[in-house]
Amino acid sequence: MGPGINSDKNLVGPICAEKYIEGCRVIIFVSLGRSGTQMRYWIALAAMVIALPWSNALAVTINTNNVTSAEYIAFTTGATVQNFESVSGLTPLTTTAYTNGTPVPSSAQMHGQIPNLFFHSGGANPNNTAANPGTPVALLSLSGGIAGNAHSGANVVAPLQIMTEATSPAVLGLAAGNFLEIIFSSPVNRAGVWLNPALGNVTLNALDASLSGIPGGSTPGNAGNFVGVSLPTDSIKIISIIATQSSGFTIDDLTYGTAGGGSTAVPEPSTFVMLLSGMAAVMMSARLQAKRREKGARGRGSVYKCHLR
């Protein structure tokens, strides 16, 4: 007869939950006095501890044009801002109007000319951009009546229509469905861009190093707003920006940083206080219940009743 089993096929003590759960059709938990209370206490405590890092791992998104807001200031503090004003080896295409299909010369086509960043408009292999760079993006210099649409300076970045063949022309992709992606050489904990106020809305998605979408890392972005995603850890490898309106989009002032340079997706101090208070309450309740049940359980044992198959 195995340990914890009596002649009535009852499983005595926590052995039922730990050793015989696979052999039970129904398990009825009966109070175990101190040991049962402690078990519930540790389960509750473990749940709280496990919940903390998972809740912190959720992405925080931003979609605002308010540069004085606390969320924007927190996002940009300590971050790197790429304004595309001086990109080595490239000459931006000067444009006075947003025309889908405008030819873009090779001198204004951008891939990896900016250190630690790689841009493409589709087709690239993020794990091997040298072998498969995909379709480049366009570096534009806004002039004339649209000059004020850049968030800073005059230069912005726009997607190209995907070049399906080596001989395909490089033309602007300013229409719904056109997109661009930014690949970071090392993962970052936040990334965002300013959208052109004269064009359309977008959807921004954040992906990790396995090229999987980050939970909570997708957000709409309104024209003229700063749109981005942040995490407490350096988990963002790629951001993908997709046009959701027929006018397309351009981006400016790419803003990104690492957790060491400041993090925005962290719980408020009140969250920690609430968690600690809850843990203390569980501990106190467990102790009080243990004392009451210990008095009532003296002189008799408690049993797990298990109906075997």
Please describe what this structure looks like.
By secondary structure, the chain is of the alpha+beta class. The chain folds into 2 domains: 11-53 and 268-308, no CATH class; 60-261, Jelly Rolls. Helix content is 21%, strand content 30%. The protein has helices spanning 15-19, 34-57, 70-76, 269-297; strands spanning 11-12, 24-28, 60-64, 80-82, 93-95, 109-110, 117-120, 137-142, 155-159, 179-188, 190-195, 202-207, 213-221, 226-230, 236-243, 251-257, 303-308. The strands form 4 sheets. It has a 5-stranded antiparallel β-sheet with strand order 3-14-11-16-4, with helices on one face. A hairpin with a 5-residue loop joins strand 12 and strand 13. Helix 2 (34-57) packs antiparallel against helix 4 (269-297).
Q: How many H/I helices? A: 4
Trace the largest sheet across and list its strands: 3-14-11-16-4
Total strands: the figure is 17
CATH domain fold name of the largest domain:
Jelly Rolls
CATH architecture of the largest domain: Sandwich
Low-pLDDT runs of 5+ residues are 1-34, 45-56, 263-273, 301-309
The whole-angstrom Rg is 29 Å
Shape: globular
Q: What would CATH call the class of the largest domain?
A: Mainly Beta
Helix share bin: 10-25%
Order of helices and strands: EHEHEHEEEEEEEEEEEEEHE
